[in-house]
Every structure is written in C-alpha cells, then in structure tokens.
Prior knowledge:
Its main location: membrane. This protein has eight helices and 22 strands.
Amino acid sequence: MCCREGPRWGRGHCAPSPTLLLGLLMSAAPLGLLGEETRQVSLEVIPDWPGAPQNLLHIRAVGTNSTLHYVWSSMGPPAVLLVATNTPHSTLAVNWSCLLSPEPAGGLTVLPRDSVQFSSALVFTRLLEFDSTNTSEASAKPPGKPYPPYSLAEFSWNNITDSLDPATLSATFQGHPIHDPTAAFANGSLAFRVQAFPSSGRPAQAPRLLHSADTCQLEVALVGACPRGNRSLFGLEVVTLGQGPECPSVQEQRSIDDEYAPAVFQLDQLVWGSLPSGFVQWRPVAFSQRQRGRDSALPCQASPVCLTLEYPLPQSPIVRAFFGSQTNFCAFNLTFGAPTGPGYWDEHYLSWSMLLGVGTPPVDSLSPLILGIMAVALGAPGLMLLAGGVVLLLGHKQCSEYQPIN
Length: 406
Ligand SMILES: *[C@@H]1O[C@H](CO)[C@@H](O)[C@H](O)[C@H]1NC(C)=O
Ligand SMILES: *[C@@H]1O[C@H](CO)[C@@H](O)[C@H](O)[C@H]1NC(C)=O
Ligand SMILES: *[C@@H]1O[C@H](CO)[C@@H](O)[C@H](O)[C@H]1NC(C)=O
Ligand SMILES: *[C@@H]1O[C@H](CO)[C@@H](O)[C@H](O)[C@H]1NC(C)=O
Ligand SMILES: *[C@@H]1O[C@H](CO)[C@@H](O)[C@H](O)[C@H]1NC(C)=O
Ligand SMILES: *[C@@H]1O[C@H](CO)[C@@H](O)[C@H](O)[C@H]1NC(C)=O
Ligand SMILES: *[C@@H]1O[C@H](CO)[C@@H](O)[C@H](O)[C@H]1NC(C)=O
C-alpha cells in the first residue's frame, strides 16, 4: 500500500538467452582457480543480564585484514546487524543496561569505531498470511485477501544456547506467538536457522546457494502451524535500512538452469549501495516439503522495497542500539507459493533460504558435471558453435540423450 508501483505478480521464470549463456560459458572458471578466502569463524551467545533472559548471538568471522560481525537477536522481532571492519581485531561491545532500556542507542557498538567500513541490518517484522481461494477472480488480487498478520515481536523464542552447534557453525531461533487464542501454533513453530561458513561451498540441500566465508545463511521454516484457510499463502515482511534517502532495490539476476538449482533461472539480490557493499541474495523458490525438489518447489515473490514512514512497524532494540533513532527504514514483502500447485496446505511445511553478506556476491558458475558433459560431448570449438543448441538441451535436461554423440 505504501508504494506507487504495484507489486509485480506473475513474473515467471524465464530461460536465459543464448548470448547470455555463451557469456556465462566463456567466463565460467572452476571455483578452485579463483582463490578461496577463508575466515576464522566463531559463534558466541552473549551472556544476558540477570533476570532478563534474551537471545543475542554474535558471529565473528576474522580474515587477514578484516572482521565481519553478524549479530542476531530475537529481542523484539528477529533481526540481524551486519558490520564489516577493516581490522582482524575489532570487537563487539554490549552494554546490557543500555540495550534493555527504552532508549537503547549506544547499547551495541563495534570497536574501534573508525574501523567500521559497512553496516546495515535486516528485521523480520511480521509473518503474513493470505487467503488465495478467490484470486482467480477479478475481484481479488494475488496473493489474496490478507488475514491479520502475526507480529514477530510478539513471539516467544527458545533459548538460543540450546541450539548452538559449533560443529556446523549454526544456531536456531524457534518461536511461536505469545498470545495464540486459536491455538494455531499449538503444534507449530516458526524457525530461523542461522549458519556461518569458514570458506566457500554449497550446501547439500536445495536451493544450494553458493556461499563464501563472507556470508551467513538464513533458513526460515514454518512447520506445523494451522493455516486459517484451505488455501493460505504465507509471507514475510522484511525491514532494512536505507542508505541515505533511497531504499535499496531488489535486482533480478538471470542464472543458469544447472544441476544445483534445476528450473530456477533467477537469483534475486538486494544490494545496499554500489558494490562491494552488503547484499542479500536468494533464489525465488521455497519448498513445501522437507524433501526439497521440483515437486515441492513454490515460487517466491518479492514486492518493491519502499520507505515505511506510512505504517508503524515493530522496532528492533538491537537496530536502535547500534544505529540510534535517526534511520530510514525500508520494507518489502516476500510471498511464498501460488493459489494452485503445491503449497503449505500439503504438509504444513514451508522453508525458504537466503544469504546475507558483504563484498562481492557469490556468482554461480556451471557445475563441473555440466561442464564435463559439454566438454566431452562437444569439444571447445563445437561448444561455441552450438551454444544455441545447448540452451535447448540444458533447458530440457536431456543429458542422457546427449552422451551417445560421444
Ligand atoms: C539458556 O541456557 C543457558 C544454559 O543452558 C543458560 O545459562 C541461560 O541462562 C539460558 N538463557 C535463557 C534466556 O534462558
Ligand atoms: C592486507 O593488508 C596489507 C597491507 O595493507 C596488504 O599488503 C595485503 O595484501 C592485505 N591482504 C589481503 C589478503 O587483502
Ligand atoms: C551503560 O549504559 C548506561 C546507561 O544506560 C551508562 O550509565 C553506563 O555508564 C554504561 N556502561 C558502560 C560501561 O559504558
Ligand atoms: C469466494 O467467492 C465465492 C463466490 O463468489 C464467495 O461465495 C466466497 O465467499 C468467496 N470467498 C472468499 C474467501 O472471499
Ligand atoms: C496437536 O497435536 C496433538 C497430538 O499429536 C493433537 O492431539 C492435537 O489435536 C494437535 N493440535 C492442533 C491444534 O493441531
Ligand atoms: C475448506 O474445505 C472444506 C472441505 O473441502 C470445506 O468444508 C470448508 O468449508 C473449507 N473452508 C474454507 C474456509 O473455505
Ligand atoms: C506487506 O504486506 C502487508 C500485509 O498485506 C501490507 O500491509 C504492507 O503494506 C506490505 N508492505 C509492502 C512493503 O508491500
């Protein structure tokens, strides 16, 4: 409602153009040759103030010349601060009495202050739910009629210490509404699983986002909650900080139909300012089953990002503690699923992943398997000539018909 530009619905997945594919083929280099940056990553739950149990998780990723700080918390709505410094020795200082006060500005600082090169934040303010039953009719626009949203500031969260796993560098914030008159979350929860990485790689599970030591992954999962309608679509409202008077925008990048992410040709990216700065990256796909595959893939739509002056949003104490009160907040909505096809209604399960990081966002290259198949089957000159044909073959995943040429 706050945007003049309406949400853009129904942008389907598009196939990459032959020229784009050719460009990608020519620039695709095995990851190992690009040089891997590694970081010394540690996760620490910051001990809380007596009598006021709070979750504050500090991820510190130290490189040769820089340190990244990710501070996750479920004080207020779940939020993360992202701070990059140009020294391997920067530290996070927490003043609990200030942080828990009504005026938290100054309660969180990264020292030395002049080492900070970039900082921003994301806040997950509300879980949205829409009734998509009648969206095929002209009267109702996708994603459908909104139900009253769940404010994530009014959730109760588990003790983050219990889910901390130093082996996988991960921790999970799991919560449910404090007031739940309809018992929708009696057997359900919303979980934010956070994971850091010491080096680059790719998880085993879809959507297999390529990560680096400069990034942190967030996996959001809604499990077992009772939807309010037979065809409920869920969404997340996300708030971020604008740099200056403008809001960052969500850019769509074409990606390749690769074995890593079959049938998803797009990578969405939110970038704060000109690169290299901070970024959020995700594939526009969510999953309606723990077994993530094509059968359970749902589209994920992002609304335009706009200033939030016109409607009140729950405030995050950690964001106010670090940034003070004079900041521009920008919001956008993510919506998962479509009125038809698989949905949350199948198994009362929904998961979606994103990466948060600083520097240059990881760029997908063709997987070694696909490169190998093409090299063997075509040879390099043929590759150039037949780039157009490759598009078709890749698009239809007919690698098996392809090998007999050899
Ligand atoms: C979380 O658990 C740890 C150890 O199990 C305990 O020391 C801490 O006080 C707990 N925190 C909260 C918020 O309950
Ligand atoms: C770290 O900084 C030093 C001096 O500024 C520079 O020579 C070196 O190349 C930097 N190392 C990396 C990995 O950026
Ligand atoms: C923490 O903040 C309080 C105000 O909330 C202030 O009085 C106190 O001096 C601060 N402590 C430190 C160590 O800075
Ligand atoms: C959907 O449309 C039907 C027929 O127009 C109407 O009876 C029903 O109340 C509508 N349902 C919702 C949720 O709007
Ligand atoms: C929660 O689970 C219990 C046991 O499995 C079941 O009896 C109960 O009906 C469920 N409640 C809701 C609201 O689904
Ligand atoms: C949901 O579906 C059931 C059976 O298909 C139907 O009886 C019920 O009225 C539907 N509920 C809503 C809110 O549309
Ligand atoms: C997000 O969705 C909610 C509920 O429909 C709406 O009130 C809000 O204006 C939307 N925000 C944006 C930025 O589109």
